[in-house]
Design a protein that fits this description.
By secondary structure, this protein is mainly β. It is built from eight helices and 29 strands. Helix content is 14%, strand content 45%.
Amino acid sequence: MLPALVLLASASGCGPARSAAGALTPPAAEMNGGEAEAAVVFAGDIARPEIPAFLARAAAGEENRDRRRYAYAVDCASPEDPELAELFLKVSRLAVMSEGRAGRAVIEQRLKVSLGEGRDILDSRGYYEGRVEGRLEFPTDGTAKAVVRFSPGPRYRLGRSVVSAAGPLATAPDAPPPPASLQEVGLAPGAPALADDILEATARLETAFRNSGYPLAAVSGARYALDHEKKLLNASIVVTPGPFARMGDIDYEGPLAVGRAYLEALRPWTPGRPWRQDLADDYALALRQSGLFQEVSVQPAAGDALDGTRPVTLKLSAAPERTVGGLAAYDTDFGPGLTAYWEHRNLTGHGDRLRLDLPLWADLQEVAAAYRYPFFINPKQDFIAAAGLIHEEAEAYKMWSGQATAGLERRLARRWKAAAQVSAEGGALTEEGQARRGFMMLGLPLSIDYDNADSLLDPTRGERFKLLFAPYAGRYHDDFDLAKVRLEAQGFRPLTRDGGLTLALRLVWGALWGAASGDIPASARFYSGGGGSVRGYDYQSVGPRNAAGKPLGGSAQVEMNAEVRARLSEDIGLAAFIDGGMVYDHAGSDAYVFENLQWGAGLGGRYYTPIGPVRLDVAAPLNKRPGDSPVQLYLSIGQSF
């Protein structure tokens, strides 16, 4: 009788220097993974001596091999740091391939490989003395279970970090010194030794060197060593700086859609200054945002001049100059609508832009034109102008009007700009319960903007700030003078490392001084409610209302919005939001302390396109008033803010 064979096995391996989990593998580190073990137990008669042992074992294995296919679940836990288990379930082969059925040997192999991946996860999170162990359970019902447990142990922290140059390091009095440690590029002393943070800081070293006069700098070596006694990870980084260089003139390659004067005016550096890669990157970004080029590449030229000046090579590929488009949309504010537009981005060959818009809604029709002529008189200054005709039938008023603005916009710094314009508006208004009345307003809008958000259409990081001050003089019931102030701040923060979850915040405060709200045209007052302000309420309905329930507008405004945006895939996303706001009769104490806010909340879907996300939001009022609809629907292009 052949002996029965039982094989029990568990194993752990060490991953590469940088795995999918992002682990760093220090040469001096001890990799304490689960120890491999195997036990073979025989039961029954002992094989006859004349039969070689290896043949007996082979025969027993063939006879007793488990040919069943199992479905299995992964039970992974790490009580001391739950993030380890979350990462394991996200990246390990055992978890990723757990759908469907597999043979016993295949599952055992997946566990073996995945324990090595777990070891890499421990290293990537700074647990260089941690352990990960696993076992498989094969019950008789055909459903297996893989049990994985992490014991992380002490977390190592960043100790000494030294950055050295591989070769001579030329310097100049007008160039900032390159960094000598990871701490100088944003890694805090004593920070947890997280592999992603260390590798990102190492990558920032190249940027720092390239912003200090070394356009060809590159990290050429890195060594990490563990100090087990002090629980520290020490780093030694070597950077090959390349030659020191100064930024020169531009060498153009490819067809030029505009004159050289336009390209020179956009250049943010003066020839002869030490090389700064961030200035070259800003130049490339400005050219892309012009809409005139499909491809833009800004690189240091191949060689230096005798004085150490290195030309900047600019490669361009022209884009079509004209665009025609349109869309159909619907929201509860205006009902169904159609929008068409035409744009020319190089009207006279100087990069000047003319755009015509024709939005047609059931309650709003408009013809609008906007023009921008860049580098007007000064390279940091643009001429801007706009004009339009509007017919609107809102709950608050019915209006025919024409308006025009013209002025200058000036770039103050990398993220700052300011504008000064003159404006004129006139037309006829019909308010609830009043006769039709003409109006005229002349103004001087002044504004200042700050924007360091990472995207114009779908930001995930950064801030935006805009302050408007606009004095007006005009006539409605009688002559009036007023000053309008409006402040808007937005902030965007990623909630996850991969940027898939974003928190977006918005705050608005505005006030009118110098005239009572009833003495100025209804179109000049503040209103809130609807898809662009407080979702869940009718358009312009948040704030004072007359006896018939019609909005009156007011002299002060408060709005606040919080939205969590989740990007589920390249094309699909979700959002959850809460909005609050109020419009007040007077810019008094209630407006300063945000009294009596109306709140709305809801959920939304996003479909991402090259021109921005298509947004579908469903919102409900949280403190519903008589006459408020239980649900509001908004469909449009672009995030809510």
